[in-house]
């Protein structure tokens, strides 16, 4: 009886082994991970540089008096626009008018003295030709004439100084722009070239935006140009688009007007200045903005969905592609910024690669995969058709 039980146990174990052997292929097949992929193709990708910056006036003029006196009148409205040459302040000019009148009288006296000296010299010169007067008398007459002419020139200079002081009693706008708050009121005493400005004028149309860039970015862009990957038409200006502090785009584009080629010793940065039209006065000096500079076009670059890119602890970016024998292959890539929901990749992938965009969370380098072609929309959402089930899998 015991022998019969042993034979039955052996038969059961044999049957179980045979069943396991039959299921082994199915188990191996189930170890493959289904992944979605897209085929990457090179394309020309616009390259931009995103920077932060601050709005600064096109020009700034601090208005200061050039003469001493009492402010008699303020002729502008604070916070409004003024044109170059507009009257801003009037200083009591009574003493300057008196000084001008005195200088004018002094000039008339000097002119009369010159005329008299000229007459005396002309007469002595004629008489000297007939030896009616001595050479000494002629020389004295000539000396008196020269002194009278010099006095007349000095009187003219004094008159011009008096005229300038009289004109400076009326303070005018040196430039056009928006004028700020007046720091003095009517009746205030002001002094020549005082430290405190009476008011400040800022030109804001057009207006500048000073952007801060790093020397590392400068070198990277130059490397791209030298390598022939970044190209642009040298005949066209470099355009800049702005985003305001509230996240809305600024309505008009500007142009890069200069780049300061001196790198800050402590910050490692330099200034890129762009100029924008500002007819609606949206941009105000001191405002922070974000800017996107059009650097040109990257030729033969790849747009890789951000969901397909991972970064290690060392910061290096990697992706998975499907190899020729349907295995997951991990590759390190080089990125050059972003475009919408994609990374711009210049190295690490090639034309026709099957880039894994879905299911890569379950794989590692060398994993056997079942690739399924997928699509991915502008929002980074993957759509794919799963592989059809076999008859055996459907029965299970």
Automatic annotation (TrEMBL):
Which molecular function GO terms apply here? transmembrane transporter activity
Residue limits of the Multidrug resistance protein MdtA-like beta-barrel domain? 206-297
Concerning InterPro entries, the annotation shows:
MdtA-like_b-barrel, MdtA-like_BSH, MdtA-like_C, MdtA-like_HH, RND_pump_MFP
What Pfam families does the record tag this protein with?
Answer: Beta-barrel_RND, BSH_RND, HH_MFP_RND, RND-MFP_C
Q: Which residues form the Multidrug resistance protein MdtA-like C-terminal permuted SH3 domain?
A: 300-362
Where found in the cell?
Cell envelope
Q: What is its main location?
A: other
Q: Which domain of life is it from?
A: Bacteria
Q: Where is the Multidrug resistance protein MdtA-like alpha-helical hairpin domain?
A: 100-167
Could you name the Gene Ontology cellular component terms for this entry? plasma membrane
**Does the entry feature the keyword DNA-binding, yes or no?**
no
Instruction: Name a single GO biological process.
Output: response to antibiotic
Which UniProt keyword terms apply here? Signal
Q: Which PANTHER family match?
A: ACRA/E-RELATED COMPONENT OF DRUG EFFLUX TRANSPORTER, MULTIDRUG EFFLUX PUMP SUBUNIT ACRA-RELATED
State the protein's name. Answer: Efflux RND transporter periplasmic adaptor subunit
Name the source organism: Ectorhizobium quercum
């Amino acid at each position: 009886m015991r022998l019969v039980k042993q034979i039955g146990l052996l038969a059961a174990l044999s049957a179980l082994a045979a069943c396991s052997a039959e299921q082994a292929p199915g188990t191996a097949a189930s170890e493959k991970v289904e992944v979605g992929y897209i085929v990457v193709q090179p394309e020309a990708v616009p390259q931009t540089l995103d920077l932060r910056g601050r709005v600064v006036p096109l020009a700034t003029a601090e208005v200061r008096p050039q003469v001493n006196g009492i402010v008699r009148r303020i002729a502008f409205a604070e916070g409004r626009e003024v044109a170059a040459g507009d009257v801003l302040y009037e200083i009591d000019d009574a003493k300057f008018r008196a000084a001008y009148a005195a200088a004018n009288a002094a000039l008339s006296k000097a002119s009369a003295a010159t005329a008299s000296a000229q007459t005396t010299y002309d007469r002595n010169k004629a008489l000297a030709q007939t030896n009616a007067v001595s050479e000494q008398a002629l020389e004295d007459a000539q000396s008196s004439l020269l002194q009278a002419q010099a006095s007349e020139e000095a009187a003219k200079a004094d008159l011009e100084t008096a005229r300038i002081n009289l004109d400076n009693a009326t303070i005018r706008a040196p430039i056009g722009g928006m004028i700020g708050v007046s720091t003095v009121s009517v009746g205030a005493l002001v002094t020549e070239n005082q430290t405190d400005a009476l008011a400040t004028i800022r030109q804001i149309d057009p207006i500048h935006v000073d952007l801060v860039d790093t020397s590392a970015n400068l070198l990277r862009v130059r490397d791209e140009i030298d390598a022939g990957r970044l190209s642009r038409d040298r005949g066209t200006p470099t355009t800049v688009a702005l985003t305001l502090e509230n996240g809305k785009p600024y309505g008009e584009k500007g142009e890069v007007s200069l780049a300061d080629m001196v790198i800050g010793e402590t910050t490692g940065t330099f200034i890129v200045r762009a100029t924008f039209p500002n007819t609606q006065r949206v941009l105000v000096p001191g405002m922070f903005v974000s800017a996107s500079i059009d650097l040109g076009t990257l030729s033969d670059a790849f747009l890789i969905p951000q969901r397909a890119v991972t970064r290690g602890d060392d910061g290096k970016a990697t992706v998975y592609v499907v190899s020729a024998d349907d295995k997951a292959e991990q590759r390190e890539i080089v990125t050059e910024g972003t475009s919408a929901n994609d990374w711009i990749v210049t190295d690490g992938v090639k034309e026709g690669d099957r880039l894994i965009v879905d299911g890569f969370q379950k794989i590692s380098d060398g994993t056997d995969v079942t690739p399924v072609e997928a699509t991915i929309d502008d929002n980074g959402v993957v759509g794919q058709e799963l592989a059809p089930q076999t008859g055996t899998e459907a029965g299970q």
